[in-house]
Design goal:
Elements lengths: L3 E5 L4 H13 L4 E4 L7 H6 L8 E4 L2 E4 L1 H11 L10 H26 L5 H22 L12 H28 L2
Helix pairs in contact: 1-3, 1-6, 4-5, 4-6
Family: Belongs to the GST superfamily.
Catalytic activity: RX + glutathione = an S-substituted glutathione + a halide anion + H(+)
Pfam family, one: GST_C
């Protein structure tokens, strides 16, 4: 199938998505750690539009943006499918993945890094709680985020779940420092 290379950054959930998908598919790849403050010429060549990670290079062809890369991986390596075969279920997986990136992550980040107080702080926290409740209703009774098999939506969500305790600890430390000032 040709050589596979992933340009990423170790703490990036978007890079981790690509790596997890390749591992689920059993695809060997070369990982290239990027310095985001001093991006390599290769990264800029392979992603001249956004100039960011992740970028998957397969047989010399670059693919950028984590959702696009995940779908490319799923379509290229057929074993262990990431997206459901049913078109409606596939659309739902894409919808909830977009919800995760566009609604859930920003709401949780806002709540964790919220420096405001009083009603404004309460509103930010309530917004995050509402988004989390929406997702909770969707996944209730399912073995994995996307259903009974690990797949696309789990890959999108698992990385954020991995980093959530770290973000929480950082936010708690920030609150403790500011309360002592």
């Amino acid at each position: 199938m040709g050589q596979v290379k992933v340009f990423g950054y170790w703490p990036s959930p978007y890079s981790r998505r690509v790596e997890i998908a390749l591992k689920i598919k059993g695809v060997e790849y070369e990982y290239v750690e990027e310095d985001l403050q001093n991006k390599s010429r290769e990264l800029l060549l392979y992603n001249p539009v956004h100039k960011k990670i992740p970028v998957l290079v397969h047989a010399g062809n670059p693919i950028a943006e984590s959702f696009v890369v995940l779908e490319y991986i799923d379509e290229t390596w057929k074993g262990n499918p990431l997206l459901p075969s049913d078109p409606y279920e596939r659309a739902q997986a894409r919808f909830w993945a977009k919800f995760f990136d566009d609604k859930l992550l920003p709401a949780v980040r806002s709540a964790l890094y919220n420096a405001s107080e009083g009603e404004e702080a309460q509103k930010v926290n309530e917004d995050a709680e509402e988004v989390l409740k929406t997702l909770e209703k969707e996944v209730k009774g399912k073995k994995f985020l996307g259903g009974n098999e690990i797949g696309f939506l789990d890959i999108v969500g698992i990385v954020a779940a991995y980093w959530m305790p770290t973000l929480q600890e950082a936010a708690d430390n920030k609150r403790q420092v500011s309360s002592h000032m």
